[in-house]
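Bump. Still looking for ABC transporter substrate-binding protein structure tokens.
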Amino acid sequence: MRRKRRGLATSLLALSLTLTACTSGGGKEAGSAFGSLDREDKGTLKVGYFNEEAFYMQYGNAFQAMFPNVELEVVSTEEAMSADDPVAAMESFIEEQQPDAVLLTEEQYAELAKDGKLYDLDAAVKQDKFDLDSFLPSVIDLLKARGGGKLYGLSPSFSSQALYYNKDLFDKYGVPYPTDGMSWEEVLQLAARFPAKKGSDNVSLDKVGADDSLYGLSLPMQTRDSFELIREIGEAKGLLYADGEAKTVSFDTPEWKAVVQSVVDGYKSGSISTVSSQGGGGQGGLMIRGMGGGKSTFSFGPATMRFMSGQAAMTVDGPMLMNMMGIGGVKIATATKAAGSSGGAVKAPGQDVNWDLVTIPTDPSQEGATGSMSLDTIFAINASSENLPAAWEFLKYANGEQLAKTSSKSSPALSARTAYKNEADGKNIDAFYNEKINEQALLQEDSLPAGFAQSFGNMAADQIDQAVKGTQTVDEALKAIQSQGQDLLTKALADEAAE
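Sorry for the wait, here they are.
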């Protein structure tokens, strides 16, 4: 449910960027290097963005009206965003194209900050008294955590998850509604109170509701394997499965066993939906490309349809599901043709579901910290930019109050400025805004070699699946994951050291 996060900057990076700040602005000190830009001032601004037309529609036309004498140039980052290694591709793009400002994913931002490629914004924020207090604190905290304690970019929006629940199903079976701040144990106990009816994972979009399957909890649409829920619950409890610094895997423990046992029991009973062989929500349906032009997509398939068709009492998902169900700044069309009908569109699935949402489950010991928040739209300034005033003015506009106000009426994204939350038609949208970042999980992932988390997850999922099928016990699965996981980590660290 969480993506790979790597790269926390070091003290050496902070020193190198301080030196850069003193020289890249023509010898100006960091506090004055950004200067000020008036409407009449001339200048140039080169922006790296995934698509030129989209840039002008979203930002460029209005920015040009504000600063008519600034010459804008947009260079496409689409190839870098869709590359097999988008971090390395973006580094090459910046080196070759030398944009002044650039749109980055969270992973790109973290690695570029670590490598000294981005400009430290702290001085500019102080100089202009740019109001960071208007932003959701967790967004700024995550930007700084990914920048090694410094702010190298700004994000106008964020993504997080919440627990959706079907009020009618809860009423029908006499189960109390979930509440904000519940633990995963409490949520799984609620899920187990529904009379599980295991149906097919291959829910066809044109046969919604054709079977009578019912799940207490349906996994998120982006879930790839049966291990992701286990990892999510464990990390919410502060459990770490591997430590790259100590070069150890720690999974065969009583704490992890309790998590694995509860999830396996849920899979076996049918109170938790299993992940099909083709993956969470990826079996056909609607695929929406990520806002930043990268590989990330929103999958609209069986996992989503279970909740939207009333076949799941709860699901954990992001704001896109809310919009697909007709709530929020953008109403996404999801109408389908009725099976066997002669034509015409029927009402979109989910429109008649009586639902609401609460905060994603966490653990009392973690004080609300989760790992579900992410930033896909981060604007940063090239550390080598010679047009700092124009670049900073653009970042202020792209992350400013006026654009946030406008976007709240036209975008499904969650505004980082808390005063401009999407209209939610009475739904508890604050559930998306009450998260704190899980710094412990970030540090764990930063310590792990590239690719290890994915290979560990794939291996662990295979072992969990065997436990669900009954071909091995949970204890046997834990021992196999411990042993094979340690081998994977040892090899990954050796390969990294050899590079």
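The domain at 162-224+275-370 is CATH 3.40.190 (D-Maltodextrin-Binding Protein; domain 2).

Edit: fixed formatting.
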